[in-house]
User: What shape does this take?
Amino acid sequence: MEGKIRVGCIADDFTGASDAASFLRRQGMKTVLFNGLPEEKLPENCDAIVVALKSRTAPVKEAVNDSIQALKWMKAQGAAQLYIKYCSTFDSTKEGNIGPILDAALETFDIPYTLVCPSLPVNGRTVKEGSLFVNGIPLHESHMKNHPLTPMWASDITVLMKEQSKYPCMKLSIQELREGKEAVLAKVEKFAAEHPRFYIVPDYYEDAHADLILGIFGDLSLMTGGSGLLGAEAFRKKAAGEAKEEMTVPAEKSLLLAGSCSKATLEQIDTYQKAGGFSVHVDPLRLLNGEVTVDSLWEEGKGASKVLYYSSDKADNVKKVQEAGREKVAELLEQTMSMLAQRAVKDGYTQVIVAGGETSGAVTQGLGYQSYLIGESVAPGVPVMTPAGNRALRLVLKSGNFGQPDFFERAVKMTTEGKRGE
Assistant: This one.
């Protein structure tokens, strides 16, 4: 089985995993996504596997242990290359998990160095002079700096890694990368003479830079970063062929769930509502007080062929709600959205669209499917997924910051017409 799997990738949450899987799928690889450590056999003709963990917000020891277990499992399946995928909007405080996970991977597989490359230019995530930008704004100055679960207080990746990791970083500018493979590797070898283990942070702020990076480092046994590298043309060389699309019966009823409070998701909700879409607000305080329940919420939207349930709100309102207990509120909302999704599938809904990483994780856990076949994408990094255990169901799960303003309508239209294309 050695070498059969071209790429084995772990991701720090479910939407991050579906994001990575969508780019592998676009490279022509038949891709299967597993929700958590796999307990079932791999499809016989699978080119790439992605394992979704919950390592972004898990305690450090748990995040490291789960990540290493998953990487070892993929290596045992014959994965020729390993990839650790993390969100470009990770926890940049010293308590974050990125550094400890990467350190453990280098040590476990006895690897001297790898890339730290969280870019995805198509979605506005870029690295220049070693710093991460979101739509041209330094990460620590962006609207995500005070994220309730993963605060982003540092933009310089070397500063981030200095707080979280045991090993140093080496920056590479675009000018240096353009000097060619031989010149770059000579600099890497010089750095390696003083540092037995380390990380390379290459500039990557245009799509074309990915091919430049992969031309030099594409054969590393382990790479880490966002989905940008996975979507690069140079990555296509790893593909065995073109993955064939499997058509299913068009969806008749659609459930939309939004738990993210990102700017993009709030705009998507507003666009959906202004277009006349039916929606139900899930008020966390009313849930806590028992004024509304899963049953009453379901009855409010029951019977609609398309309904959006949303708990998303503006930052100031979220802070007020969190005074009741951040973790308690988050758990209650995730549980509520998960139960609504379970009700919908049981009631014959054949499409579930979710906005928000934590919400998506709760929904997939509640539905109980472990593996998914990856189809075409609604938006960059947001594929249509078909559970291996229920070929009539389609799931569209997106990170809060992904997607166009009319994302919900696009997702509904694409699958209700029985299409799987962008």
